[in-house]
UniProtKB/TrEMBL annotation:
<protein>
    <recommendedName>
        <fullName>Phage protein</fullName>
    </recommendedName>
</protein>
<dbReference type="InterPro" id="IPR048922">
    <property type="entry name" value="Bbp16"/>
</dbReference>
<dbReference type="Pfam" id="PF21190">
    <property type="entry name" value="Bbp16"/>
</dbReference>
Amino acid sequence: MLLDQQALFSAAQAITATAVSTNVIDTGSSKDVGKYGDIPLLIQVVEAFNTLTSLTVTVQTDDNSSFSSATDVISMVIPLASLAVGYKTPVITLPMKLERYIRLNYTVTGTAPTTGKVTAGIVGGVQTNV
């Protein structure tokens, strides 16, 4: 799978506490980025997690880069048993009606992990044959 640095929210981002993605994607417009078709989102574990109970990944959008009035648009809870190297979330597509800025929020449930990294971003397609 090809990843574009400009379309990544997280590039092997260590998640040791609740945090937002390292990067925010600025769509450059208030127009609906999802209007003309499915835009897939890849969320993949690149280092196994330990100790937490689950990790919730939420897609957030806002009309300003400080996310002062962020809206949660998609959320998924991933249990510890799934948070092994190579795990990819089921195919997620960005919904219509997003605002200009998009980021991910990672919420740790349970004990804060000492290991665990995620790479996540918008991709041209999600590889499903492995």
